[in-house]
Amino acid sequence: MTLMEDSCVMKDDYANISPLYMQRLKNQVEEALWGLFDKSKYRQVEEYVRRWHEDDGNLWENFSVYTTDGHIDLDRTLAEMPNDILIKMAADIGVETPGLLPCIPVMKNILIQSNANAYANFQRATRDVYDQPDQSVALAASTLEGVFKTIIQNIEPDNSMRNASLTKLTSKVVKHLVDTCDPSAPLEIKTLASQLRGLGNAIDDLRSDKSMAHGKAPGGYVVDDPLWAETVVNCTATLGIFLWRLFERHQSQQAEPNPAPQPPAYDDDIPF
């Protein structure tokens, strides 16, 4: 699939989002961008926006960057930016997008801050979905391994699971984080979370049995449909985001100081 064709697919996916929603999001992104940099704001904002810009060296470009008096016209540039790019940009700079789940950019944002190797694997997994589906599946599995090893290293620094399979890593992380989930969480949510082991196992099995990651016997099936690869990459992002968010909650709870014990209260009417 070419760059232009891929862009058209993404535009179609986001084409029916409410214009009012997108207008409000555009205003939030504009405000957030101006607050990102302390110095040389116009130059740095323009450089950042241009990192999202693509063209074919001829007539096609994914959006136009407008300038006024030698500086970026951010309001006009964002106003004409395609929905999918604006939503990804919002996720990248931390602007909330309620009602939408741009899981791929959110997952990338988590990875780039937590595990550089996993980020590189996920970048390649998303890139290879259409051209090398089995390679995409294998890289998605490696991404989850990296995320889960990072979580385990933070929760249990002495626990060495360097060579553990994705299946074992998933089981370990789910057991620890789901078991320590907010007690107020509905039973159904905990049940749903506990089923995540099956997702991790399935992704691990696909890499082992249906990709070329570990070699393949002649005539054996190898994932060759981009739809299957796309599904695995999306599942990887959803699973990774959910468990990482639980991990962040776990860490913040651990960091909270225990309340100091309160002295007993005495009733003034008691004669002692």
Main sheet: strand order: 1-2
* Gap from first CA to last CA: 85 Å
- Pick out the low-confidence regions: 1-12
Major pleated sheet: 2 strands, antiparallel
Give the name of the CATH architecture of the largest domain. Answer: Up-down Bundle
The global form is: globular
CATH class of the largest domain: Mainly Alpha
Category by helix and strand content: mainly alpha
Strand content: under 5%
Average pLDDT number = 81
Number of domains: 2
Helix content: 55-70%
SS elements, strand count: 2
Global Rg: 23 Å
CATH topology of the largest domain: Four Helix Bundle (Hemerythrin (Met), subunit A)
Tally the helices: what do you get? 12
What is the ordering of alpha helices and beta strands?
Answer: HHHEEHHHHHHHHH
Features:
mainly alpha, disordered N terminus, two-stranded antiparallel sheet, single chain, 272 residues, Four Helix Bundle (Hemerythrin (Met), subunit A)
